[in-house]
UniProtKB/TrEMBL annotation:
This is Uncharacterized protein. It comes from Volvox reticuliferus. The lineage of its organism: Eukaryota, Viridiplantae, Chlorophyta, core chlorophytes, Chlorophyceae. Residues 201-216 have a biased composition (Low complexity). Residues 77-100, 116-137, 194-250 are annotated as: Disordered.
Length: 871
């Protein structure tokens, strides 16, 4: 059932809703029976087809994934000699439906040692069989040398196998398998089913059994070879020369005891090798199965996150704790996906779950696992892991970060362009060095510390390496600047500038002893000239490519700025907005860095901020003179991206942009109109009257098509901007919103809606106020103290609300009896024109505050409501 949804996802065929409803009901009932592979396939189908399963189905999927994640880790697989209890592919310790890797290696060993098994045969543990049920001698007459006959007494005897390669009491392979044994000389042969080996327990038992089979002194042990013996009918039989027993008989061996000792001496290393191979294959199989199981669980969480399904904090906490023992089995891709899930949860505010789930022990295991992965061919996953670590606020040790960058350096020039751009944004958030990781002369203020040719401080060597690594990164990006977009170029410029500003100027604090010649590879870098030593030449030079020192940082930056200017001239409006977003993020990071740096490093931070100012002016100038064709679908994304940047735009630029948007307002949808209004609020820009009239006309036609939440957001945004709404627009709003006032609005939206109505309308109809009161009554506990401010604001406008709402608010906030009595006395003493329950509410929420002072504050400053208004 899980494979069906995955196949549809691979074919990009979305089923109809009727089929999906039946599928959710059927699969939800059996989801507890799914394996980790089934859950991974289900989550892949949901994510790839962008489906919205019922909440019950999603909860069942998450519960099944958590149950499998919390199972104890899979131990080592049982060895071959103890695996007879398992049945087929469904035995314990094996992945159902998959051939064991250990059995595959064992079959390969059978082939190498000479036993004959048809290609592709799967050995199945069965009960032991006797000679009567063995295949005839004519089966499989392959001229392949089998294992020596004496090996049977040393190989495991608890397993019994069917097929051409079987394990019986006599050993493996062709002992009972129906193949002939060829010797070096053309000797007569007999079918193997007529051969008899000594019993595994002892050689004497074999002699006893063979002597008793013929009776008396007329027969000897069958272990002799190369000599013609007579059977019961007097027929001469020749046995091949193929065992230690036969060799002993030829050279005059003393008896079966000596034969057994020689066989043990010869075959004991073989048995030890075989036992070691069994243990190794069992360990490999167990590790492979643990890795696959953990990878599939991470896939489930990642696919659900990619599908936009939020998980509860409790589930996330338990899942992260359950994945702690499995971190050592995850690949680089799996670690990247797991950290993306954690970073997405942090953006939703699940900080408590992350603090518990990602403990210090969890982080130590994560860093240790990342140290053990070869990132040479998966550098993009390493960059993704480092980016998620930076977003989560984890602080790994600086030497660990430098080790990751070292492993990334040989493949820098092979990384995709998107990975290089992401790396530029990740670098400023990584702890590249400790705060106290500086030279002695930097802290003491002493003169330059001389460096001899035979000594270099470790911190200087690390700084040299970091500078050269940045030079190599800059050179790699510079080679691809012709194919990069303006936003990508700006992201790299801002990231490198932040790292360079954080590096303290240390080159002037180090002096070179006389007679020291710096190496050639450092000749073009002034910091490197003063910090080289003969002992570190090979260490640093081995990690560098020749082209990394061809261009200085100033020259590189100027070349990148020129490339940005060339890209902006031909960029679309969406590309310009994306570039503005990148610069806004870089500006915010520069301000934070400026606050964190010490006094001596402020100059570098200010210089980096000045470079960002020049780039912002470049983008703003292109936005102001943009003459491209603006489509209807570009209006909302462009304004929302500019607003989300949080960086103020010049008024002239916004005027030019909104002038080009005004003719497109009638064609905008309801959601796009709401987005435009909220974007203007975040930009703190009030359009001119002509633009307001066009916007009101376009939005009035869409009022009936909007949802209650959209109408509420539109009215609150209009009130925040101070727009002039005509009376017909307000009347239509009351008529439309009264019917579904309490359908989709929460307590905060209801409070903001009442505030917006009090700002924009003279007085609403009594029926609308009554509907608002009925809608707010079930949500009283969601309103909070801001509801008091809104009610005071409304009552100041002369509106009358029912006393039931006021008393219900008092009961919801549950003020103490003494506070209520004190409020009543103050109400009587001050003679306020507000209801006593509202005064009780104020004291219950904000403590013993005078109702008169509260009302005066509300009348004096309406702006204290802004925290409760959409911004």
């Amino acid at each position: 059932m899980a494979g069906v949804l995955m196949a549809l996802a691979l074919l990009h065929r979305r089923p109809d809703d009727l089929w999906l409803n039946e599928y959710w009901s059927l699969s939800g009932a059996r989801i507890c029976e799914c394996t980790t592979a089934d859950l991974a396939m289900l989550s892949f189908g949901v994510s790839e087809l962008q489906l919205l399963p019922p909440p019950e189905w999603t909860s069942a999927l998450l519960a099944a994934a958590l149950r499998l994640a919390e199972l104890p880790p899979v131990g080592p697989m049982p060895a071959l000699e103890t695996s007879s209890a398992s049945q087929g592919d469904g035995g314990p310790g094996r992945p159902p439906g998959d051939r064991s890797f250990g059995m595959t290696l064992q079959l390969l060993l059978h082939k190498l040692t000479g036993s004959g098994t048809a290609p592709g045969r799967h050995l199945q543990p069965r009960a032991s069989v006797g000679p009567a049920s063995l295949p005839s001698a004519g089966i499989g007459r392959r001229q392949i040398r089998s294992l020596p006959a004496a090996l049977g007494k040393f190989l495991p005897h608890s397993s019994r196998w069917n097929g051409n390669d079987q394990v019986s009491a006599s050993g493996y392979g062709g002992i009972w398998g129906g193949s002939r044994i060829s010797s070096l000389a053309p000797l007569p042969t007999i079918p193997l089913t007529e051969q008899r080996l000594p019993a595994p327990s002892s050689a004497s038992a074999s002699g006893t059994a063979s002597s008793s089979s013929t009776g008396g002194d007329d027969s000897e042990s069958d272990s002799g070879c190369g000599v013609s013996k007579a059977d019961g009918n007097g027929t001469e039989t020749n046995r091949p020369l193929n065992s230690a027993y036969d060799m002993e008989n030829i050279f005059g061996g003393g008896g079966p005891e000596t034969s057994s000792s020689i066989a043990e001496l010869v075959l004991e290393p073989v048995q030890a090798l075989w036992d070691g191979l069994q243990r190794a294959t069992a360990a490999v199989s167990s590790a492979w199965w643990r890795s696959r199981r953990a990878s599939e669980l991470v896939t489930v969480a990642y696919n659900l996150t990619a599908a936009g399904m939020s998980v509860e904090a409790v589930w996330l906490e338990r899942f992260l704790l359950a994945m702690r023992p499995c971190l050592g089995d995850l690949s680089g891709d799996d670690l990247h996906c797991l950290l993306v899930v954690a970073a997405e949860a942090m953006s939703r505010g699940n900080l408590r779950a992350l603090e518990v789930g990602m403990s210090r022990d969890w982080q130590a295991a994560l860093f240790a696992r990342m140290d053990g992965i070869n990132w040479a061919l998966q550098g993009q996953h390493l960059i993704g892991c480092l980016g998620s670590i930076s977003v989560l606020g984890l602080r790994p040790p600086a030497p660990w970060v430098r080790r990751q960058l070292r492993s990334l350096q040989p493949g820098l020039q092979f990384l995709p362009t998107a990975a290089l751009v992401e790396l530029g944004g990740v670098l400023p958030g990584l702890p590249l060095y400790y705060e106290g990781e500086t030279g002695p002369s930097l802290n003491t203020g002493a003169g330059p510390a001389p460096i001899s040719a035979g000594h270099m401080d470790p911190w200087i060597r690390e700084r040299v390496w970091l500078e050269r690594w940045l030079a190599e990164y800059r050179a790699t990006v510079s080679e691809r600047r012709a194919t990069m977009e303006a936003a990508d170029l700006l992201a790299v410029i801002a990231g490198v500038a932040a790292v360079m500003a954080a590096l303290q100027p240390w080159a002037t604090t180090v002096a070179i002893t006389p007679g020291f010649n710096p190496p050639v590879y450092m000749a073009s870098s002034p910091p490197a000239l003063s910090t080289s030593s003969s002992t570190s030449r090979e260490d640093v030079a081995s990690l560098l490519l020749p082209r990394s020192s061809e261009v200085s940082y100033a020259e590189w930056r100027q070349g990148m700025v020129d490339a940005v200017a060339a890209r902006l001239r031909e960029a679309s409006l969406a590309a310009l907005c994306e570039a503005w977003q990148v610069l806004a993020d870089a500006t915010s990071g520069a301000h934070q860095q400026h606050q964190q740096l010490e006094q001596g490093d402020v100059a570098d931070a200010m210089e980096a901020a000045g470079h960002l100012d020049g780039l912002r002016e470049l983008v703003v100038s292109r936005l102001a003179v943009y003459h491209g064709q603006l489509s209807t679908s570009d209006v909302a994304p462009v304004l929302s991206s500019l607003a989300a940047a949080g960086l103020p735009l010049p008024a002239a630029t916004l005027d030019a942009l909104l002038t080009s948007v005004q003719p497109l307002l009638p064609a905008l949808t309801s959601s796009e109109l709401v987005t435009v209004a909220l974007s203007l609020v975040r930009l703190s820009y009030k359009p001119n009257l002509a633009w307001q009239a066009a916007f009101c006309a376009a939005s009035r036609r869409r009022l009936g098509l909007m949802t209650p939440s959209q109408r509420c957001s539109l009215l609150v945004a209009s009130a925040s901007l101070g727009l002039h709404l005509p009376d017909p627009w307000v009347k239509d709003f009351f008529a439309v919103s009264e019917r579904g006032l309490g359908e989709q609005l929460d307590g905060m939206q209801l409070a903001n809606l009442l505030w917006a109505v009090s700002c924009l309308a003279s007085e609403p109809a009594g029926s609308w106020l009554e509907q608002w009161e009925y809608a707010s009554m079930p949500r009283l506990r969601e309103l909070g103290p801001n509801m008091l401010a809104v009610v005071l604001k409304v009552r100041r406008s002369g509106w009358l609300l029912g006393g039931q709402l006021a008393w219900a608010l008092v009961l919801a906030m549950e003020p103490t009896v003494c506070v209520e009595n004190r409020c009543r006395r103050r109400y009587m003493d001050e003679g306020l024109g507000i209801a006593a329950p509202l005064a009780c509410l104020g004291c219950g929420c904000w403590g013993p505050v005078s109702p008169r002072r509260l009302r005066e504050r509300c009348e004096r400053n309406d702006g204290f409501l802004k925290p409760y208004i959409y911004a």
